[in-house]
Each structure stands twice: as C-alpha cells, then as structure tokens.
Design goal:
Two copies of one chain form a homodimer. By secondary structure, the first copy, chain A, is mainly α. Chain A is built from eleven helices and no strands. Chain A has two domains: about 50 residues, Arc Repressor Mutant, subunit A, CATH 1.10.10.60; about 140 residues, Orthogonal Bundle (Tetracycline Repressor, domain 2). In chain A, about 75% of the residues lie in helices and about 0% in strands. In chain A, helix 4 runs parallel beside helix 7 and helix 5 crosses helix 11. The longest helix of chain A is centred in the first third of the chain and has 26 residues. Chain A starts with a helix and ends with a helix. At the A-B interface, helix 1, helix 6, helix 7, helix 9 and helix 10 of A face helix 1, helix 6, helix 7, helix 9 and helix 10 of B. The first copy, chain A, binds a DNA duplex through helix 1, helix 2 and helix 3.
Chain lengths: ~200, ~200
DNA sequence: ACATAACCGTAATCTTTTGTACGGATTGAC
DNA sequence: GTCAATCCGTACAAAAGATTACGGTTATGT
C-alpha cells in the first residue's frame, strides 16, 4: 500500500480534520467524526497518526509550510526593504488572522495540558521562522542607510508588534474577525509609518 | 440560607475552580472535581451557577474587576501623562501574562464553540475598559503639548501593541512565560521610547 | 490474473463528564 | 431551642470520546 491512493486518502483525512476543527474546535473534533467525514476508518487514523495530537500536529506543520512559502514569496524580490515590509504586512496579517491559524492556535491552547506539543510546533514553524527573514530585511534597510538600526532583531519584533499586536488573541477568544485585505493594507501602512519615525535617520 | 456561610462557600468554590482551571485547563476542569475540592456538592454548583460556563464567566468578571482596580490605581495620580504610562506598563504586563488571565483566555478559546460568551466578557471587562483610560491619558499628553496626537484612541492602541504585542497568544499556546517585573519595566521603557519618536513634537 | 497488504465499516471496551435525585447534616432566622 | 431552608455526600442515568479489534473489500505489486 503506497502510491496515489494513499496520498489521496491522507489528503482527505487532513482536509476533514481541518474542517471539523474549524467548525467545532479541538475538543469536539473527534477522531470518529473525522474518519466518517473522510470516508476513512478510525483504525486507519490511529495507524497513520498514532493519536489525536499527532494528527493535529501534522496539520500545524502543513499549514506552517504553506504560510512560510507565501511569506518567502512576498519577500523574494530584492528591491527596497521598506517596500518588502509593505508587501509582507497584508500577507502576514491575513495568515495569522485566517481561519486555519486561529483554529490551530485554539487547538494548541487546549493541548497545553495534554501533550503540550502543538504550541511549540506553531511557534517553531511560525514566529521563529518569520523573525529571521524580517531581521534580514532590517539589516538590509540599515546597511542601505534607509533606517538607523541598532538591533535588527528588535526592529523586526517591533514591526510584528505594530502590525499584529493583540489581534491573534482577540481572534482566538472570538472577539474579532479575520483581517480583510483593505484593513490589512491600512494597518501595514500605519505600522510602516511608525517604523519610519522610530528608526528614521536622526 | 444566606449570610456569612454562603459567602464563604461561594469563595471556596470560585477558588477551587481557579486552581483546577490553572492546573488542568478548561476541558478537564470538571464540575465534579471543583465540587470535591471546594468540599461542596455538585448539586449546589449547578444550583448556584446553572452550568459550567456561567461559573467560569463569574471568574472572568471577578478577575477583571480586580485587574481594573490595579490599573486605575496605577493611573490615579494626576501627574505627568508619560509617567503614568510608564507606571501602568509593568502592571498591565503582569496582569495580562499572569496565570489567571492566561487560564481564562484559554477557557474562552475553548468556549468559542459552546456558548461563545467568555471571550466577549473578557474583552468587555479587559481591553474595552483599559482603552478609554489610556485614551484619556493621551488626550492629556496632547493637550499638555507633550506629544502630537491626532487621534488619542489610535495612540492608545499603538501603546498597547508596542507594550504587549503578541505576548498573550504566546502565553496561551504555552510558548512563553509570565513577564516578570524587570522585563516588564524594560519592555515598558522601550514602548515609551518608541511612543516619543512616533508622536514627538514635530 | 493472482496474492498480499492495507483500508473500510462496524462493533466493542473503558473512562469520564454532565446533570439530576435523595436522605441526612448544617446553617440561619425567630 | 425549634423549625425550615439549604447544602453535602453519594448515587444514578445518559452521553460522548479515545482507542482497539475484526471480517470483508479494495488497492498495489508482480
């Protein structure tokens, strides 16, 4: 057993798991219901993933991989670093406030007392992946004389704080909505304006 | 039945609920275990609170009341508005990253698919309470000519973003620790420095 | 086509929780 | 002290979920 069929089954299982996670949350996303929706057997889920946490850990990793590719693409052009930050902002906002990220953060919050692995996975693949990319952008901005940067890592964290702030927790506890493109662009523009004032040439 | 005994029983139940919430999370905090720890009867819990969510909603409200008092005390002195922000920063950081707030945010994240009430309660009593207080401080800073403020509400949100950023979600998913006093002071100082640059007299 | 591995659908086991019921004990009011 | 209301501790019923087992069906490799 291998080949195309197994890959298709795997994809169907992961898709079903994501749907049910988003609809009902981690607690109510039972392995049995995921199996039913995916037209798979409970036993196959346990055989392939070992347990519930491992299935959702795989989802975290998949989602992070996709997000990372989007972010790297937004940064791929070797143009003006400030332009790069402006391009990246809306992409990053849409990812972190999107349904998938929110559902997975909720799962991680619920998992803290069980295996305590989902949160670490989210952070490893999320923030700890994007920060070095951003740090590199700020190094370039400093080298090009566009901004006065003592510590590029700190500048990168400041950008994330100005851009995202407390949006994620508000999404996770259910008091705010996904950030749509227009708003993401406005929020990015404001963050970049603030950055220029904080780190402008003295 | 009323009077002192009932008040003491109520306090014991709420204390037990908080302990178990912090130790095991919302999902595993069963009414039965809370009753046992509080030396109360399951039936009494259901009689007094109706259901699990309502018990935890009461905890949210209690915690928010206490937090608000601390914050108002930090802002009570009618001195320099920038000093007020510097006094408030560490207090706010310790509250939002403290065990109680984190446990309640996790409960709210888990409740999104059930009654979806805890998150709204947290926000009503938390952010939507502190923002007007901060907005007033920024109005004063503008009027006193200390900062150039177009929109005091926006400035207040910027301060929260610079100060707290994504700390809350990172606490909730288990990848960071409470913010201790020294770090809270450093973080506050940095946020205030950034504020001066963003909103300094032109 | 055939043989084998693996998956599907169903069932079973075990554990835990929610919410209600009840008799005896305790508290509060008079 | 007496009486009534209420709480405690225990028990029960129903439901749900995690995980494993099993016979028949299906996909894969030769």
């Amino acid at each position: 057993m291998g080949g195309d069929y197994a890959a298709r089954r795997l994809a169907a299982i992961k898709e079903a798991a994501f749907e049910i996670l988003a609809e009902k949350g981690y607690k109510a996303a039972s392995m049995l219901e995921i199996a039913r929706r995916a037209k798979a057997s409970n036993e196959t889920l346990y055989k392939w993933f070992g347990n519930k946490q491992a299935l959702f850990k795989a989802l975290v990793e998949d989602n992070a991989r996709e997000a990372r590719e989007l972010l790297e693409r937004a940064l791929s052009d070797d143009g003006d670093p400030i332009d790069a930050l402006s391009r990246l902002g809306p992409v990053l906002l849409e990812i972190v406030t999107g349904e998938k990220a929110v559902a997975l953060n909720r799962a991680a919050a619920g998992d803290v007392f069980e295996t305590a692995t989902l949160g670490g996975t989210i952070a490893d693949y999320g923030r700890e992946t994007i920060l070095p990319l951003l740090t590199a952008v700020f190094e370039r901005a400093g080298k090009d004389g566009l901004l006065t940067i003592d510590d590029p890592r700190e500048a990168a964290e400041t950008y994330i704080n100005l851009l995202i702030g407390d949006l994620q927790i508000r999404r996770v506890i259910g008091v705010s909505s996904p950030t749509v493109r227009k708003e993401a662009e406005a929020r990015t523009a404001r963050a970049v304006t603030h950055l220029r004032r904080i780190y402008g040439k003295a």
